[in-house]
User: Which sequence fits this backbone?
């Protein structure tokens, strides 16, 4: 069996959102699932709109998501000589021909066809045929090169998403594949690249489905069998519009900055157009084990923020505490929080992550929670006044006294709280809530004994002494 070779071929014209990066995830996952090769190819022939900055953002986003490529990045602008070489070979073989029709003539032709209710198409004026006399070559006009599209018959392929597609060759006119200055056009570059890079599976957005019959015809003219195609339906935003920057889509790297785990985004995107039974939550390893082209969705995926958050929460739960500790440190660093030595390394921060991660969808939220361990806290005054009254102040003070001497671990802290409740005839919330407000700055936290045990005793005593 030939080795699977896939590619992601973005045009670096700006911004890359979740919908765009899904077109990288699927070929990556398919290559990994089949021990194949994943290639990154930058389609930068639109020189005015392309920029290195945009390339960098694409590479950064892919790197963050762990979509590592085995070959490339290849840049189409660096392959111009190769395209011209193939053009020359095609010209020599009579597979392409020069066309001298001016743009005025083309416009006039189009108008005539529209007036006759015909589909506008090139009429083959300059297409050489045996026994046909071509018009005299006009002087001083540089021709375009047109591909001699097969006449009659049709182009058929089994699309992995859309099923069988058949396009009659009569629908396809002779495509311009080189401009008057000799530069190759978009579809031609794609064909030469897919051929040279040995691409076996083209997995891309269905905005390219109209290019496919033309690309197949050119590939065949070059003696190549076409690859397998899978045209992915668009990704819609929550309002049902095509996802785009203009319609409020966020850049992929913004999700990183908001503290989403890369594996959560990978999981979410994988499900946005592909399924493995009813599985909603899976690891990167499972995705790579399961991914195939047989379960791609036919209808457009719709972005759903609530679902993304839910997936993200599940991944926070699954993530290793050591990984989370590293990411929380990064968040703190960005915020300029000075991290005490005991949290800058070692297991203590990991233990904190373990205690709080169930409540979070992102590491930003986790860093917010854990801020109580590295900075001052202030409970909302009104809430504190309502929860800490003459009825329970003595109990809090008595607890503080007990906490001075107990072993500093969860079980002993729990016993101290229980003893205090018994002494004052109070219920758990009457003690625990004011303690949380004073020590953590908030009334709700995971189990109070566990939360306290992760503080330094001195900090807890100092905060309780505000009573
Ligand atoms: N450069 C094209 C795009 O950004 C992709 C072309 C392809 O995958 O064949 O949409």
Assistant:
């Amino acid at each position: 069996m030939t080795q699977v070779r896939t590619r992601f071929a973005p045009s670096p014209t700006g911004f890359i959102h979740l919908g765009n990066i899904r077109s990288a995830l699927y070929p990556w996952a398919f290559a990994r699932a089949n021990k194949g090769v994943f290639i990154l190819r930058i389609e930068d022939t639109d020189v005015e709109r392309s920029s290195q900055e945009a390339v960098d953002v694409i590479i950064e986003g892919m790197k963050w998501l762990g979509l590592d490529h085995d070959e490339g990045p290849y840049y189409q602008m660096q392959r111009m000589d190769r395209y011209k070489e193939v053009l020359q070979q095609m010209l020599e073989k009579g597979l392409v021909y020069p066309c001298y029709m001016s743009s005025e003539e083309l416009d006039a032709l189009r108008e005539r066809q529209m007036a006759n209710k015909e589909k506008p198409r090139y009429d083959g004026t300059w297409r050489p045929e045996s026994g046909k006399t071509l018009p005299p070559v006009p002087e001083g006009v540089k021709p375009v090169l047109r591909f001699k599209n097969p006449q009659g018959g049709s182009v058929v392929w089994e699309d992995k998403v859309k099923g069988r597609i058949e396009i009659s060759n009569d629908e396809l006119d002779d495509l311009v594949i080189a401009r008057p200055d000799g530069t190759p056009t978009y579809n031609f570059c794609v064909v030469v690249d897919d051929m040279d890079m040995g691409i076996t599976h083209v997995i891309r957005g269905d905005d390219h489905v109209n290019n496919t019959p033309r690309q197949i015809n050119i590939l065949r003219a070059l003696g190549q069998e076409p690859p397998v195609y899978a045209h992915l339906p668009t990704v819609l935003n929550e309002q049902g519009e095509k996802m785009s920057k203009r319609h409020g889509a966020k850049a992929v790297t913004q999700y990183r900055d908001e503290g989403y785990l890369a594996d959560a985004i990978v999981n979410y995107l994988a499900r946005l157009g592909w399924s493995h039974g009813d599985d909603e939550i899976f690891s990167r390893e499972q995705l790579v084990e399961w991914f195939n082209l047989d379960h791609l969705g036919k209808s457009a995926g719709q972005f759903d923020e609530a679902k993304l958050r839910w997936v993200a929460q599940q991944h926070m739960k699954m993530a290793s505490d050591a990984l989370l500790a590293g990411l929380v440190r990064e968040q703190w660093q960005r915020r300029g929080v000075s991290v005490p030595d005991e949290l800058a390394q070692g297991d203590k921060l990991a233990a904190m992550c373990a205690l709080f991660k169930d409540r979070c969808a992102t590491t930003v939220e986790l860093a917010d929670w854990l801020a109580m361990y590295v900075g001052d806290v202030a409970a909302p005054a009104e809430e504190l006044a309502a929860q800490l009254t003459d009825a329970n102040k003595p109990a809090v003070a008595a607890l503080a006294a007990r906490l001075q001497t107990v072993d500093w671990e969860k079980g002993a802290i729990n016993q101290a709280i229980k003893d205090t409740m018994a002494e004052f005839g109070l219920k758990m919330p009457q003690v625990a809530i004011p303690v949380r407000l004073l020590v953590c700055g908030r009334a709700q936290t995971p189990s109070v004994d566990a939360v306290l045990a992760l503080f330094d005793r001195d900090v807890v005593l100092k905060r309780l002494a505000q009573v």
